Amino acid sequence: MKKIAFITNGQARYLTHEWLHGYRRYISDHHSDIDLYIFHCFGNFSQDQSYNIGEYNIFRLPRLSDFDGILLDLALISDHELKEEIIIRARRASVPVISLLDKIPDLYFSGIDDYHATCSLVEHLIAEHGCTKLNYVGGIIGNYENQQRFLAYRDTLSKHGIPFDPNRIYEHNYEVETGLRAFAAFQDKELLPDAFVCANDNIAAGVCLAAQEAGFSVPDNFLVTGFDNATRAINFYPPITTVEFSKAHIMYNALGLLADVWNGTAKSSQVFSPTRCIYRESSGCTSLFPADPGKYVSSQIMAEVRQGNMLNWMMELDRFLLDCNSFTELADHLHTWLTRHECGSLYLLMNPDIFMLENVDSLPEVPDDIYKSIGYPDRMAVVYPHTSAGKSVQIDLSKGELLPDADNSETAHIYLFAAVHFREREIGYLILENCDYLTEHQFLFETLRTFVTAIEALYGKLILRKKNKQLSQLYIHDSLTGLYNRMAYEKLALPVFNQYMNSKKPVGIIFIDADHLKYINDNFGHDMGNLAISSIASVIRQHCPDNSVSMRYGGDEFVCVIPDYDQTQLQKLKQNLLDSLATLSRNSRMAFPIEASIGFVVADDSVFSLNDYINLADEKMYIDKKNRKAGR
User: Fold this and answer.
1) Which domains does the chain possess?
2) Mean pLDDT within 97-118
């Protein structure tokens, strides 16, 4: 099974689903075994550049040399440095690279002849309608398609002896807003033309809307042309003159060119899909194939139904996700929801330190400056699907691993990779398999946004839980010794005691009192007294079991509550404590001994309270202290 990496950027909130149509058709026609790995982002959607940085980071995920071919759809990326970075990485991969729509030096190309298609439109405006003042409204400056369409506009003016006026040029992006702004700008400069040549249908629609708002009429006052033959072009009023081409056909041709390169039979480095000029009412023409209003209304009704369903689904998904308490549970809910909407497998991979938040009560603080906004860490935790054994699994990105368990069947698959990020901060990535329903009906953006919002909310909840845990630990810990303080009696010791009493299991209670503390404080100072107390505490930590609750009960008193401990174990523990204190005292070379008196009892009768047993252990400690004094 061959693998193709496809790097593509959405237009606003929309993914170009026609690319997937072209891939599916080629695979079906040629019975090809090619998996398509789509690295997709919505990097030009938000006004928040930090958000866009987080989106674009998905392009840095794949090790491109691991693929058999690379497809690039970079026409809508306005960040020239990022675009150049992607191109350089693709060239270094040493595999065939095909650029779609955008001609890039030294790369294969599959697209259309923008130049001659636009020449035909401008020629029509001049020769058929007598236009002598033409304004160009373009898309992204530096974009190849926009450049070709502009050159065609300028050269056709020159061909007919019409002077080129740079004041009649306005370029921004490919959205309706560009047309609205352009019309206002030309009106302010008193440069309204005979015709507007627009780089796409969105811009053309914006110009028409602005003209109507200003009291003008298209085509009575101005002619307008677009490009792309989007659905709105034929159904707009007036219907927009445009250029038709198929992105599905461009993808189909790209895969055919790639196959020829693989087989060594490629006759050219570029392949062109056909274009067709469609003249409609916006340029003063009569549509040969006018829109079917009934069909359009029906499609709009169905689109509204799907949109309503999507909003309901998003609300339902949001409700489910916000109730989740782990990242794994989040992904599980999303997968269940997507399965109902004809999607395949789902994979969620996250930075291991962030994933561990849900498994560890207290983690060391991680400085914010170690988090990535450019690239990904070498290792990623597989959050979903989780293993049946519940063990944490990681993959190594540095070895080219992207999928935990890619399907090895002969059926071709589409894997869509999307960034999971909090603004510019990289968190992980999501993989959706065969999610055609989401992309065809343009539900992908809302689905991803809802999911990432839920991840961020859960992350905040886990951080808050961690901070509360840390505060709680500070509240019940003694700062001098590191043991629990007396506040832990209610929160920890008593619950442990009650649990074991109810299950008829014994609990060992040890009471420890520091010897000579008044003497040490009076003769050597309180700092030395604190040293003696902390030394005894360190011995307690060394020998008491991990599941015990060891407390500094008073100034020089300690209590240890030890689950499931009998008389023999307690006696051995007492002796170990005394021996360690003796060794510590000898090795410390202090002017005073570090000693303690110890008493213990086994709690095995639930009739008596924990406090009763502590008092009893205290009494035995005083007997031990009296005996030790008598023996000196």
Assistant:
1) 2-109+307-463 (no CATH), 113-244 (3.40.50.2300), 488-631 (3.30.70.270)
2) 97
DSSP string, 120-137: HHHHHHHHTT----EEEE
Contacts of 58 (CB under 8 A, 6+ apart): 39, 40, 41, 417, 418, 419, 429
What does each C-alpha distance from 498 to 46, 112, 492, 600 come to in angstroms?
56, 78, 10, 18
Helix (H, G, I), strand (E, B) or coil at 226: coil
Residues sharing a CB contact under 8 Å with residue 67, sequence separation 6 or more, in sequence order: 3, 4, 5, 37, 93, 95
For residues 51, 53, 56, 61, the Cα torsion angle rounded to the nearest 10 degrees is -110
Burial of 105 (0-12, 13-18, 19+ CB in 10 A): exposed
Closest by Cα among 571, 491, 555, 479 to 518: 555
How far apart CA 360 and CA 519 sit, in angstroms, is 44
Q: What is the mean pLDDT of the chain?
A: 90
**What are the tens digits of pLDDT across the range 368-388?**
555 677 889 999 999 998 766
Please tell me the distance from the alpha carbon of residue 198 to that of residue 136, in angstroms, as a whole number.
Answer: 6
Tokens of 567: 């008389």
> Is 174 in contact with 200 (CB distance < 8 Å)?
yes
Q: Where are the beta strands (DSSP E) in 406-491?
A: 414-422, 425-433
Q: What 3 state SS string does 143-212 have?
A: CHHHHHHHHHHHHHHHHCCCCCCHHHEEECCCCHHHHHHHHHHHHHCCCCCCEEEECCHHHHHHHHHHHH
Q: 3-class DSSP state for residue 240?
A: coil
Q: Which of 600, 514, 597 is nearest to 557 (CA)?
A: 514
Name every residue whose Cβ is closer than 8 Å to that of residue 162 and which is 6 or more positions away in sequence. 126, 132, 134
**Cα–Cα distance for residue pair 261/4, rounded to 1 Å:** 13
Q: Which helix (H) or strand (E) holds 234?
A: helix 231-235
- What distance in Å separates the CA atoms of residue 175 and residue 232, rounded to the nearest whole number? 13
Place of tokens 């005979």: 194
3-state SS class at 430: strand
Residue-wise burial string across 10-44, b where 16 or more C-beta atoms lie within 10 A, e elsewhere = bbeeebbbebbbbbbebbeeeeeebbbbbbbbbbb
Distance CA 165, CA 183 (A): 16
At residue 560, the 3 state secondary structure works out as strand
Kindly report, residue by residue over 568-627, the tens digit of the pLDDT: 999 999 999 999 999 998 888 788 999 999 999 999 999 999 999 999 999 999 999 998
Give 376: exposed, middle or buried? Use CB within 10 Å, 0-12, 13-18, 19+: buried
pTM, two decimal places: 0.75
